[in-house]
Write a structure and sequence with these properties.
four-stranded mixed sheet; 10 helices; 7 strands; about 15% strand; globular; xylosyl alpha-1,3-xylosyltransferase activity; Nucleotide-diphossugar_trans; XXLT1; transferase; XXLT1 xylosyltransferase
């Protein structure tokens, strides 16, 4: 087993010019902080990792594995043609909230609606990045261009604070074909913040997850169940 450690400062230096333009739309702070670039690592991983690395799984720290993560690698085989990454849906109505203006202007939209038919957005706690597909995808690389980011944020009136997750969510509204949607059991989020902040009536439509959990995600400092 070979372990390679990457220097955060070195990565940030490569990342910053690629993601600088999108940071002002998807960062918590106002303005563009150099150090914030690391929250966009997954977005441009294909540009800064050596060419011989073709697939990467990127995960948050607040996870608990109930199965062998090797099984997650098998999901790469399920990617439809054109998909560049695997990602699970967001399990709270956070994007119902974020897209409020677009939803008001487009009352028939699926944007921000709960599964199975809606587009609730994504959660980036567990990410399968097919770096080779990301490098080859003309569409995906066009979407990283500042002008395209600007165009989409204007169309959707989007202002977020969750880094790469916001970018993938917005892109997924426009180009769902770029994403292989992971089953909720691969990223069973536990945070219930939005239940108590104005969305108790619809919360459970987003939060439900059938099946045996393979990865728990204790997001927003939520306790993960003991075995």
């Amino acid at each position: 087993c070979q372990v390679i450690v990457h220097d955060v400062n070195e990565l940030t230096e490569k990342l910053f010019p690629i993601v600088e333009a999108m940071q002002k739309h998807f960062s918590a702070g106002s303005g563009t902080y150099y150090s914030d670039s690391i929250f966009f690592l997954s977005v441009a991983m294909h540009r800064i990792m050596p060419k011989e690395i073709t697939q990467i799984i990127q995960v948050d720290l607040d996870l608990k594995y109930k199965t062998n993560i090797r099984d997650l690698f098998d999901e790469f085989d399920n990617f439809p043609e054109g998909a560049v990454m695997g990602i699970a849906r967001e399990m709270q109505p956070v994007y119902r909230h974020t897209f409020w203006q677009y939803r008001r202007e487009n009352p028939q939209t699926k944007v921000g609606e709960p599964p199975p038919d809606g587009l609730p957005g994504f959660n980036s706690g567990v990410l399968l990045l097919n770096l080779e597909a990301m490098r080859q995808s003309k569409l995906y690389n066009q979407l990283l261009e500042p002008a395209m980011v600007q165009k989409l944020t204007e169309k959707y009136h989007f202002k977020g604070h969750l880094g790469d997750q916001d970018f993938f969510t917005m892109v997924g509204m426009e180009h769902p074909e770029l994403f292989h949607v992971l089953d909720c059991t691969w990223n069973r989020q536990l945070c219930t913040w939005w239940r108590d902040h104005g969305y108790s009536d619809v919360f459970d439509q987003y939060f439900q997850c059938e099946g045996e959990v393979r990865i728990y995600h204790g997001n927003c400092n939520t306790a993960i169940p003991e075995d």
